[in-house]
Predict the 3D structure of the following.
Amino acid sequence: MGLDRMIWTGFATLTVLFMMSPLAVLVLFCFSESPLLSFPIQGWTLHWFFAAFDRPGFFTAFQNSLIVTACVGAVSTVIGTLAALSLSRMNRRAAGSLMALLTLPLMAPPLLLGIALLTFYTSWVDVPLGLHTVIASHLVFTQPFVILVVSARMLSFDFATIDSARDLGASPLQAFFQITLPIVSPSILGGALIAMALSLDDFLVTFFTIGGNNTLPTFMWGMLRRGVDPSINVVAVLIMALSLGATVLGFRITRYRG
């Protein structure tokens, strides 16, 4: 191995260690016997898992997260897929302009987006805050991901197969369910999982639009305000595992190559 390759390999290794070490420490302290988040670790226990699950409001927050994530995944998938299919049939310049407009929420800082949505709900439409406003808010930044993923697949889609099916007597609905949907379904499912992962671990937008309820991220924020102990790490690891699992599965299904 040449010197240059050794240097770049070492640099890459240090970069990976630097990025992964906070996550490793987070998982490690879930099993620490001491309530203090400090080294050296003097013993190992599963006590903090039971402590986190026994906290009042944990399972309610967990249920709310599942409701929001499932609704966001379903709605963003349906609307995002229909939007992507419509864009694929449009003039390329017009489709590009619309795509740029639809992805604007992704460029806005989450703090700005959360405040803007809070102002919209309370001052413009006078809607009480709750899970419904969280779901609507999450759709603003999750749908563009579904549109982008499905649109990328539609770029290489052979529309001649649809025309052939129509010539053979298939209705538009039959052509969609028997030809288009089976071909693009991996991209649709992958986009849905990515949208669900983004919704699950969102804090800022949720914080401004949820009112008096809690999801797991806002529940963890409430735990931090009362004090820090390893049970907070357990909740954080749970959120990380669910989000990471959905994201990795989504990238795997869509065969994302980054």
Q: What stands out?
A: The chain has twelve helices and no strands. The chain has one domain: 46-253. The CA atoms of residues 220 and 226 lie 10 Å apart. The mean pLDDT is 81.
